[in-house]
Write a structure and sequence with these properties.
Elements: H1 7-45, E1 55-62, E2 76-79, H2 82-92, E3 100-103, E4 107-111, E5 117-124, E6 129-136, H3 139-148, H4 153-181, H5 188-206
Length: 208
């Protein structure tokens, strides 16, 4: 005749299983992004010593005469009309759709910053001449800007939030697993304390 497992032991077994499940799921979700953000943390920390030579390309085109009238009657900050933005993309291969433009009496200027580079488009309101410039600062700059969320758009903005939530879950479940196993590993809490004390001491005594 077998003895039923004690309720406390059953609860602990269920709790431990849940922690392990959530720990590995959050680790799987955040693994690649955590590696990316760790590597770019190093490249950002050494940004002054990592040289990069920006490459700038100039492009030119002309707006069809039939669209010139759509450049009239605007001022301040307003996006290009959809048809004009489509013509700009066809002429200089830059997407200005929905981007705010700076309208002056002579031209309209649209800034097109992006991760790892920059860009802009200027359209002469009288002649329809399109001038554009694209700057590429290299893949390290691109990854660094992704780390900072600079000019990366709404999709990357939400990805960073989801990734951060997965990292928090990974960390908290790891902490609870440490607590469960600490009795058999005496060095657990001293190592955790050292991980807390080291950055705290550096921040207090070595950062001016």
């Amino acid at each position: 005749m077998t003895t039923p497992a004690k309720p406390k032991r059953r609860w602990r077994s269920w709790y431990l299983k849940q922690l392990h499940t959530w720990h590995w799921v959050s680790a799987a979700i955040s693994l690649v992004a955590m590696l990316l953000f760790s590597v770019t943390g190093i490249t950002l920390n050494h940004a002054a010593t990592i040289s990069a030579t920006p490459e700038t390309v100039e492009r030119q085109g002309t707006l069809p005469p039939s669209l010139l009238r759509q450049l009239g009657g605007k001022s301040g900050d307003a996006p290009l009309p959809a048809a004009v933005a489509d013509a700009v993309e066809a002429a200089v291969k830059l997407d200005a759709q929905g981007k705010p433009g700076e309208w002056s009496d002579s031209d309209v200027y649209v800034a097109l910053p992006r991760p790892g580079g920059d860009g802009w488009v200027s359209i002469d309101r009288a002649s329809g001449a399109i001038t554009a410039e694209v700057t590429d600062r290299g893949w390290i700059s691109y990854l660094n800007d992704l780390h900072k969320g600079r000019n990366s758009g709404a999709a990357w903005f939400w990805f960073i939030d989801i990734f951060a939530a997965a990292c928090i879950l990974f960390t908290l479940t790891g902490l609870l697993l440490l607590q469960l196993h600490a009795r058999h590993r005496p060095s657990t809490w001293p190592i955790v304390a050292a991980g807390l004390a080291l950055p705290a001491l550096i921040a207090i005594f070595l950062i001016h």
